[in-house]
């Protein structure tokens, strides 16, 4: 089984590289002809788009357009019916969620909810996988290495707490945080994993203006200072227009439009998708 998987990764990598122009880096994340049906409903319908490295890309569209389903497919939560998902040119369509996470594709709400009876700091310390201390023989044979790793891990957690301004509540039970602080903690848990690309599904939903501004600033800083790429689903158009470039528009499972925020905002097809027959009637 393992060997077959390895072979298919190698095959798919080779074929995707041969399809890419020589010397050009493949897009960081790409979906090609992705399709997923639930019973008779085609939620994602031959959808193709790319997310370039270093961008904060917006993914918008009316309710039920298939945006969250695309996230579920990209993160390995549900298998596609057909089509491909490529991360850095490598096919990840067959991988498990934890394998995809380990490759640096993270999603805030894919991480289990906060552990309410643990402190904020302990929640962060839970995240990184594959610590030496997890193996009893390492603890027994290489206690120094385990201690050094734990110390690095703790330093990183402290840095993340500072970064997200959660240091004052680090010893608080996670259950006692406000809804907004829990969102920041989720982002912190994601940062502990050193992501390449982060998928955010409606980060502004249910968040007050002040916290929203802080989330926006965090996303911009993480993009600028750490080179993290973002793909962000959002219904708050102000946030999308200020934060994202490019913006991809989905409608009825397909990519309807893509471009700079201003271009997309003025696209009649996009307006029609949002407003349905109303726009068509008004325009006609
Ligand atoms: N697990 C599922 N089983 C059955 N139908 C589903 C499932 N997940 C999604 N759907 C359906 O697929 C379609 C697309 O849903 P999806 O959640 O991807 O839309 P969305 O673009 O994220 O919408 P919203 O903006 O409202 O969150 C909807 O009609 C939804 O009811
Ligand atoms: Mg959704």
UniProtKB/TrEMBL annotation:
Keyword Signal set for record: no
Region Disordered: which residues?
A: 1-26
ABC transporter domain: which residues?
Answer: 29-277
Q: Which UniProt keywords apply?
A: ATP-binding, Cell membrane, Membrane, Nucleotide-binding, Transport
* Gene3D superfamilies noted in UniProt: P-loop containing nucleotide triphosphate hydrolases
- KW Glycosyltransferase (keyword) present: no
Tell me the InterPro entries matching this sequence.
AAA+_ATPase, ABC_AA/LPS_Transport, ABC_transporter-like_ATP-bd, ABC_transporter-like_CS, BCA_ABC_TP_C, P-loop_NTPase
| Domain of life according to the entry | Bacteria
Which CDD domains did the record assign? ABC_Mj1267_LivG_branched
Q: Where is the composition biased (Polar residues)?
A: 1-21
Q: Name one Pfam family in it.
A: BCA_ABC_TP_C
For molecular function, the Gene Ontology terms on record are: ATP binding
Query: What is the protein's name according to its record?
Result: ABC transporter ATP-binding protein
- Provenance organism: Castellaniella denitrificans
